[in-house]
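Format notes (please read before filing issues)

Several people have asked whether sequences and C-alpha cells are stored in separate files. They are not. Every record keeps both together, in the order shown below: the sequence lines, then the C-alpha cell lines. Line labels are part of the format and must not be stripped during preprocessing.
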Amino acid sequence: MFVVTHTQPADLYDRLLEQVGGGDEAAFAELYDLTCRRVLHTVSAALRSPEHSAEVMQEVYLHVWQNARSYDPARGSVCVWLRTIAHRRAVDRVRQVEAAGRRDRRDATTSDLVVPDASEAGMALHEAARLRSAIRLLSRVQREAVVLTYLEGYSYQQAAVLLSVPLGTMKTRARAGVISLRRHLAAEAA
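Then the structure lines:
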C-alpha cells in the first residue's frame, strides 16, 4: 500500500530554516518564497514607504541568513520568529526616520550659526585628540563597537548585524568600551 504524506507548513519551515543554518541557498530561496508575503505585510503595516519596506525586508532576510542557527523552536514557530524580526526592524526604521526628521527640522530652525571663538575651537580640537588617543587604547572589538554605535550613529542592532555578532555581545562590547574610555580619559586628566 502506498501512503502519501504531506509535510505540514510548520515542519517544512523548520526543515528549511535548519538547512539555511547550514548555508543551503536553495532552502533560503524557498523559505523566502514561502514567507515573504507575510513578512512584507508585517513590515508594511509599520512603514508607509515602499522604499523603506524593501530595505527592511533585505535586513530581515539578511538576519535570517546570518542567524538561522539561533532560531529556537521552543520560543515560537518560524513564521512568528520571522514576523518578530520584521516588526522589530520596522520599528527601528520608524524611529530612525523620525529622528532624522527631528534633526532636519532642528537644523532648519537653527539658521543662525554661532561661530565659536578661537579658544573654544582649540579646546574642541584638544578634546577630540584626547578622545582619538583613548579610542586607540581600546581592544579591537571594543573600538569597533564604540565607533559604530557612538561615533557613526548605528543602533546596537545595526552594529551587531554589521559585525555578525549577537545583539547582547554588541551591547557588552560597547559598554565595556565606554567604561574603558572614561577610565583612560579620567586618568589622563588627573
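For reference, the curators noted about this record: Residues 78-109 form the longest helix (32 residues). The two ends are 86 Å apart (CA to CA).
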